Amino acid sequence: GENVEQHPSTLSVQEGDSAVIKCTYSDSASNYFPWYKQELGKRPQLIIDIRSNVGEKKDQRIAVTLNKTAKHFSLHITETQPEDSAVYFCAASEDTGNQFYFGTGTSLTVIP
Amino acid sequence: DVKVTQSSRYLVKRTGEKVFLECVQDMDHENMFWYRQDPGLGLRLIYFSYDVKMKEKGDIPEGYSVSREKKERFSLILESASTNQTSMYLCASSVDAILQTEAFFGQGTRLTVV
Fold first, then answer.
1. For residue range A3-16, what is the model confidence (pLDDT) as tens digits?
2. CA within 20 to 30 Å of B72's CA: A65, A66, B88, B95, which one?
């Protein structure tokens, strides 16, 4: 089965700086990679996703890059704000079963 | 707006009790999932279902069973609760394998087994 590894497990940045979270996956059949944000006490919610036919996707301050050859994908948050503080999960899925395999999460703290 | 609703936000149960966690989604999604969330371990898949009465084991099915009698409802059953099943349980649903869209999560049930 798929194995998704996520680093770092914790990340602290100053407000306004950038944050990068990296994930690797093992199954070359995976072709859908969503990122979820979970604020304290709340449910995980999708913030951005990317499919394997695309190398990069951007939505305002958030971007995701995918390197299929190396089997890794990354989340980039620019101009971080205190409300970006949360736990972020990466995930991988393939189109044969629609199972989602999650990373172990990154706790991001943005220091004002 | 997709809604995934879990029946309880907090539960406290005794060791050995049979525990039912209920999840309902209102968007006619094919797939439903049960995850367990523990610090440092992320989201681990317990069971998932891709159709009514169909179920597949995830990564950590031991001690759990599931039921999907209706498309909108997916129940997680702890046959005999143990203290190591104290955790946050998250239900999720998604459209289907072909469309391959995001998973929508419920608000979670924090279960404490004493």
1. 999 999 999 999 99
2. B88
